[in-house]
Amino acid sequence: MLTNERSEAAKNFMVGMADLMISQDQSFVLCTFPLGACLGIAIYDPVLKVGGVLHSMLPDSSIDPKRAAARPGMFLDTGLALLLEYAGNLKVKKENLLVYVAGGSQVMDETGCFNIGERNYAVLTGLLAHHGIKIHAEDVGGLTNRTMQLTVETGEVRLKFSGQAKMKILCKPSTIT
Q1: Is the residue at 116 inside a domain?
Q2: Angle at 70 between CA 76 and CA 140, to 5 degrees
Q3: Which of 73, 118, 169, 174 lies at a CB distance of 3.0 to 4.6 Å from 79, suitable for a disulfide?
C-alpha cells in the first residue's frame, strides 16, 4: 500500500503479515504484528521523511510464484522489490535510505531444524547488497518474537519484545544523518 496523505492526529497503521506499507504521512506510525522467524524491514528517507515497513515471512518466492504474485510481501525477494519500487515512486533515492531490520528468531524452532529466521536474514542481506544498500541497525535472531514501529515523522524505530513491558529504541532520530 502506498500513501502520501496528510492528517493531524498521530495514528498507528498495522502492517499485516506478508504485507508492506510506505508513507509520507508524518502522523503515521507503521507497526508490525509480532515477528517470529519473519523479518520486519523498515526503510526511512530522512531527507524526504518517507518511511516504509515490510513484514515478510519467507525468503524466496520461487517456492510459490503464484502466491508471490498475489501477495508479494510474503517473500523477501518480491516484497523488498515492491517496497523499493514504492519508495522510488515517492522520489526516494537509494543513497538516502536508512534500513532497519528486526525478527528472524527461532520461535517454535528452538532446535534450529528449519532455520527460517536465519535463512530470511541471509537472503535479505544478499538482496540489500545487490541493491547497494546497507543495514543501519538490526535486532535479529534469538528465541523471542518482537514487534517493530517506525515513526514516519522522525524515523525513530522501536521494538517491543514478547513478555517485556518496555520498548527498545533501535534507532533514535538524533542518530539519523
Answers
A1: yes
A2: 20
A3: 73
Specify burial of residue 173 (Cβ count, 10 A radius: 0-12, 13-18, 19+). middle
> Residue 169: which of 153, 142, 148 has the closest Cα?
148
Domain membership of residue 74 (yes or no) is yes
102: in domain? yes
Query: Which residue(s) pair with 36 in the sheet?
Result: none
Q: How far apart are CA 85 and CA 136, in angstroms?
A: 20
Say if 121 falls within a structural domain.
Answer: yes
Residue 111: HSE in the Cβ half-sphere, 13 Å Cα cutoff: 2
Q: 78-112 pLDDT, tens per residue?
A: 999 999 999 999 999 999 999 999 999 987 656 65
Arithmetic mean of pLDDT over the chain: 91
Q: How many domains does the chain have?
A: 1
Tell me the CATH number at 71.
3.30.1330.200
3-class secondary-structure state, position 29: strand
Q: Which domain holds residue 57?
A: 2-172
Task: Please give the C-alpha separations between residue 98 and each of 14, 23, 138, 143, in angstroms, as whole numbers.
Answer: 21, 15, 11, 26
